[in-house]
Amino acid sequence: MKNALLRYRVMATIVGVLLIVLILVGVPLKYLTADGTGTHSAGDFITEYLGIGHGYLYMIFLVMALLLARRARWDIGFTIVTLLCGTVPVLSFWAEHRATRRVRAEYPETAPEHSTV
């Protein structure tokens, strides 16, 4: 369970960060700046390449989330909300936190080990 949670959290974070950059940086630069400018080109580059990368990584995220959902025996509603929240910038981080909190509550062995120094 611990490894499934870790894989899910890593993918959720990567996909969430890429989505924020894509939507809050790339799209405005592409569509709100004049054609032919450096900022427009940067926006075009971000939306094209980061968009493709995000799409592939989102598919991996879906697989990791579904594997975790199956292993943790989530109900269909919780699973669907978790998957859909991965498509909304910033909300994806809330969904990751919510899912992690639930898994750690139901499976205490997944809680991080605290070292005493």
From TrEMBL:
Residues 6-101 form the DUF3817 domain. GO terms for cellular component: plasma membrane. The keyword Nucleotide-binding does not apply. It is a multi-pass membrane protein. It is found in: Cell membrane. Keywords: Cell membrane, Membrane, Transmembrane, Transmembrane helix. The keyword Nucleotide-binding does not apply. It comes from the Bacteria. The chain crosses the membrane at residues 12-29, 49-69, 76-95. Its main location: membrane. This is DUF3817 domain-containing protein. It comes from Marmoricola endophyticus. The lineage of its organism: Bacteria, Bacillati, Actinomycetota, Actinomycetes, Propionibacteriales.
